[in-house]
Amino acid sequence: MPVGGPCLFLSVNVSARLPDYRRSLGYLRTHRWPKLLLGTLLGLFLLDRLFPPPTRVAYSTLVTAADGTTLHAFLNRNDKWRMYATLDDITPRLRQAILRKEDRWFYWHPGLNPVAMARAAGRNLLSGRRTSGASTITMQVVRLLEPRPRTYLSKLIEAARAVQLEAHLSKDEILQLYLNLIPYGGNVEGIKSASLIFFGKPPQLLSLAEITTLAIIPNRPSSLRLGDNNAAIVQARNAWLRRFEQAGTFDEKAVQDALNEPLDARRRPAPNQAPQLSLRLRTEQPDQPIIVSTLQPAVQAATERLVRQYVDRVRGQNIHNAAVLVINNQTGAVEAYVGSADFANTFDGGQVDGVQAIRSPGSALKPLLYALAFDKGLITPKAKLNDVPTNFGGYEPDNYDRHFNGPVTAEFALANSLNIPAVKLLRDVSTPSFVGTLRQAGFRTVQKQADDLGLSMILGGCGVTLEELTQAYTAFADGGKVREVRFVADAPTKTGSPSAADESTSPAIFSPEAAFLVTNTLTQITRPDLPNNFDNSYRLPRIAWKTGTSYGRRDAWSIGYNRHYTVGVWVGNFSGVGVPDLSGANTATPLLFQVFNAIDYNTPTGWFRAPAGGKLASRQVCPESGDAPERTCEGRAVDYYIMGVSRASRCQHQTMVWTNAAGTLSYCAHCRPTGGDSLLRPVARLYPNLAPEVVAWYAASNRPYAAIPPHNPACERVFGTGVAPLITSLNQNSEYFINPQKPADLALTCQAANDVRRVYWYLNEKLYRAAKPTETLFFTPTPGTLTIACADDKGRVSRVRVLIKRE
């Protein structure tokens, strides 16, 4: 290594290269053109950056079906019909016709055609007027993007811009842009707009005659107006067809057929199917020129037609609207979306989206509650629920038909949509637990109302949408998993998956066993929500369904499903006006059946089967209680149950009571006689073990029942076990307002067990009166806090506290 090491070596290399640099700098100083070239290139680069070609175009929004069929089109922000044509819309025949007529050398020139420009300049100079413009397709695109006065300076600018555009876009993209911008008179621009509006078909289906017609219009959009000057258009079209034949662009047979084709061109309304969904999707994706929805054209068209025809039939009953949502259970795709009967009917609120409108569900939430109760082990299908007047802490619901059925099975209560058993189940399940399940199922409105909801929500005291309700019912068709519905094809779900068909994206809100038990019940045909005489005039589809009617008969619902589809139907008035004849059974269900028969008649998808895994089994139960039978139970019934979940209680629908021989007195263990005369010997008898509310209902409706005889009056034993009387009036922690000048009497009522013959009422610890358990007493209240106690003849006591206020 020489002295100085690497530094000396580097200095020697740099010195050796200095002559090369000096020669290069000298060459640049003596020759100006490289500098000019570099400066020009830099200037062009900066100009391109500062003034890029304006390729952003305001397109009309198109909503298409899943197969690409255009369903709905919207004007763009400039109120023009400028529909976006994709490269697939440009067929080879369309490409040939346009290029032959407008720019034969399109794929060969850099944006401008010098030969054509020179030829056009010569013609214009010789004739003394402008006879030819020599504009290429690229230059025409520039002119359409940036309109300028027709001058030579504008032509130069267009030529420069055309070269710039060629540097940014491919030839196919420039041709596509041209076909999207060419004018067709009025506010119609682009080949796709003209094709749909004047011929009622997409560009792919245009004939050669129609293609030629659309190719010649942009040169004379004012004089050749489709629908007005069709005769002149035919002449111009045929002239160009003959040119195509002479040039060999198309063969003689194709041209001859086109020459003989009549011109059926007229202004048609833009596609307007599925208006509510289209508006919704455009709002969600405002800058998307083409939105591919999941709708199926045949299903959408059939559903729209059925809804329109059905509402026309029931309009005489003052029912003016309906909405239907059809969901494919295998994919979660919405195949039909009808928000109203007639979008153009502004008088009846046709532009309201009934799929998203918040309405009262009536009884339509009950199947979800029963499924949750099955999973919590509270009931099985044959378990008994009491359908009798019941006070739930001041809330006293009634049945839809104002009749009560006494003890009924859970499946009977669900199939007949009984209200009292549903409210009791909600109390046992708990409102927060049920609200949590609904939140998991996608009920956004219920989630917002959660803090204000009580037991009345199961009878319609909450707000839901048709979309939420129909989506929730997909869980019954999919083993308890809610399908996340999709409105846009190949759109990612909330979990990020590209398809809602992915099982991992479907939350399970109840078990497959509970879903099967509910489906088994909702498939029954002998139900009150079967439309009157429907089976005599229409085909009954094989579906499971549930109806709902809101308070005041403002909303009629019917949600049905099979393995293929879940269909939700709402019928009513968007104004909220109630109709006496409106009901889920007779108003909404006929439309539900019609939709299923139209879109899925004789479906090959089969029916639901009990879930695999062995958790769902059957067992013998006592038909009087639905519990495991005792030896005293008469008869047996077969019931489903979920192993490890369903309750396994022994039947207690009867209780053994010791009585005298005549059955007029009952004995407890303390006072029961032993030995002695056979006439005085106690006898063991079985009596029904009735809940207090059932006893009260039997007594109030004069229904006979086996009452336990009164207890031996000679016995002084005080009972501390058993059910204390239930005070049903007044209500715990309630406030009552009275007029001190004319105070109204308040009622005292209770419900007591079967073995109670007398109750004692106390007001602020002072005995007020003794009465029968079913007797109603009245008292005159005074302002202040009042404690009411009710004790039965067994010593069992219940209390409530209320506040009496002056008005």
How would you describe what is shown here?
This protein is α+β, with helices and mostly antiparallel strands. It has five domains: 5-50, no CATH class; 62-260, Penicillin binding protein transpeptidase fold; 334-599, Beta-lactamase (3-Layer(aba) Sandwich); 615-645, no CATH class; 726-806, Immunoglobulins (Immunoglobulin-like). 34% of the residues lie in helices and 16% in strands. It has 23 helices and 25 strands. Strands 7-6-12-11-10 form a five-stranded antiparallel beta sheet, with helices on both faces. Helix 9 (208-216) crosses helix 10 and helix 10 packs antiparallel against helix 11. The chain is elongated. The termini are far apart. The model is unreliable at 1-18 and 493-504 (pLDDT under 50).
How do you describe this structure in short?
Helix content is 34%, strand content 16%. The chain is α+β, with helices and mostly antiparallel strands. The longest helix is centred in the N-terminal third of the chain and has 26 residues, at 5-30.
